[in-house]
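Why should sequence recovery work at all? Because a backbone constrains its sequence more than one might expect. Tight turns favour small or flexible residues, buried strands favour hydrophobic ones, and helices have their own preferences. The token representation captures these environments compactly. In the example below, the structure is given first.
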């Protein structure tokens, strides 16, 4: 069951998105609420699974991974679990989604260069059960992954 968020949850998530290392007392001061309220809200968000952690937001291009690709993989259906496990072993695989349509999996990959991407794709093609791939290069990312506008809409449009 989905957790119900309110405007305070939305404001707390926005503050944490800006700086996940903000101390509890500073969050309380910024939001104009008690420290215990911040702690209780954070515990509720974390224990419900709505907030899964506070990892650093790493700019992959800044650390040498300038090529980003989305790869659609068509595969033997009975080998999906094994293929997903094989992809999990690739450090360059950032995420994998099971999808509908021609591609069974949509895989996001970061590579240092086009040559590096080619080598990664050759390894992907060598996975037993991979039938066909279609690779799309990301030329730019005008909107990075985000969820706060959706959370804000959810909490501000409640009747």
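From this structural description, the recovered sequence reads:
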């Amino acid at each position: 069951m989905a957790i119900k968020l309110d405007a305070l949850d939305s404001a707390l998530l926005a503050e944490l998105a800006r700086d996940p290392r903000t101390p509890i007392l500073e969050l309380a001061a910024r939001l104009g609420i008690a420290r215990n309220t911040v702690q209780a809200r954070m515990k509720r968000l974390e224990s419900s699974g709505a907030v899964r952690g506070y990892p650093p937001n790493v700019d992959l291009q800044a650390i040498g991974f300038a090529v980003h690709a989305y790869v659609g993989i068509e595969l033997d259906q009975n080998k999906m679990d094994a293929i997903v496990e094989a992809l999990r072993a690739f450090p360059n695989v950032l995420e994998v989604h099971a999808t509908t349509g021609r591609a069974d999996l949509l895989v996001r990959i970061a590579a240092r260069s086009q040559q590096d991407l080619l080598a990664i794709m050759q390894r992907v093609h060598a996975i037993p059960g991979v039938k066909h791939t279609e690779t799309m290069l990301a030329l730019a990312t005008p909107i990075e992954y985000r969820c706060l506008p959706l959370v804000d809409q959810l909490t501000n449009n409640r009747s």
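A few observations help interpret the result. The two ends are 20 Å apart (CA to CA).
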